[in-house]
């Protein structure tokens, strides 16, 4: 390995050069934690007190949820939303005089948590653009990437993000203040996660399971998953590889995190899949007069028209086709071979890379997130092979319906939600996308 880069003035050298870190991020297929890479980042000092002094009276939108656990995931649609300052948030968490709590005073801090999540730093610091330079993703091999491409997360104990998988890219997460526990599940566990697109959020596939308090009678296949659990401490950076499921919960009274989603070449096909999914979801839900109003996640501004969705699908297919053409031209230029090559499907690529790089330098500066020991008498799922990913049959699809819903009687009417659940299952969408791209390929 080449020598590690020199640290900034007054700091120790970093254990990985930007190119070494980038290679690990783009090639590892299991989550890892980087250590000793960000001690010289100004953003490492962004605790709640400091951010409160910088933002002063500028409010943030907080999501409010209940600390009491039940077996249903606490989706964003089940939460309340308030506007408050970080100063009020601090006083509320500390339990000081209620007259200092502002909008938080409607919620007992012993019963509720608060989360300012998905806050784009470019918006948060629109009047303090220099703050964006405090985040230095260039140290991980992504020059020019700083706070403009990052999000801020400020939460109290118990604040959580429901279990989901991101459709695009991989995720780098810096823990600044407090600790957060991450429950991660590999892509091969998808059939056992009971995926759903309701509530609908572009690029997020949610699990119907509350992974920290699962209802195993309703979701028996969840027992076959392979959870990887890690508690992230301040100064550590977690890599969440492509298509890993994750549930995140704040451990300490106040937590601050900064993340950035890193684009990948494989996102071109994923964007086609997302466009197909959005077209189907909006078509079904808009046509169903019985659809509850909360089928759209609060992160989505409006329901696009069918014409808009088809236009966006066409653009995604066009971008994918252009990318494939450029990649083939580049390959042929290097090898002198102009013969056609069969494109590996996304399922084959994902299944072929379900092991970490043998050369990953695990040690004091890079820690793998290991699977948790299996519970007694509970089986674990095997990773799907490339053939299994490609040759999906009815038997290999997840049994997404609840056990009681599968007992159809003569008076049982199937809901549009149940039909939609099957249509937008990730494996079905993958097959539809493959067929669409094959038919439209030149």
Automatic annotation (TrEMBL):
<dbReference type="InterPro" id="IPR003347">
    <property type="entry name" value="JmjC_dom"/>
</dbReference>
<dbReference type="InterPro" id="IPR041667">
    <property type="entry name" value="Cupin_8"/>
</dbReference>
<dbReference type="Pfam" id="PF13621">
    <property type="entry name" value="Cupin_8"/>
</dbReference>
<keyword id="KW-0963">Cytoplasm</keyword>
<comment type="function">
    <text>May play a role in cellular stress response.</text>
</comment>
<feature type="region of interest" description="Disordered">
    <location>
        <begin position="322"/>
        <end position="379"/>
    </location>
</feature>
<feature type="compositionally biased region" description="Basic and acidic residues">
    <location>
        <begin position="323"/>
        <end position="334"/>
    </location>
</feature>
<feature type="domain" description="JmjC">
    <location>
        <begin position="113"/>
        <end position="277"/>
    </location>
</feature>
<dbReference type="GO" id="GO:0005737">
    <property type="term" value="C:cytoplasm"/>
</dbReference>
<protein>
    <submittedName>
        <fullName>HSPB (heat shock 27kDa)-associated protein 1</fullName>
    </submittedName>
</protein>
<dbReference type="GO" id="GO:0016706">
    <property type="term" value="F:2-oxoglutarate-dependent dioxygenase activity"/>
</dbReference>
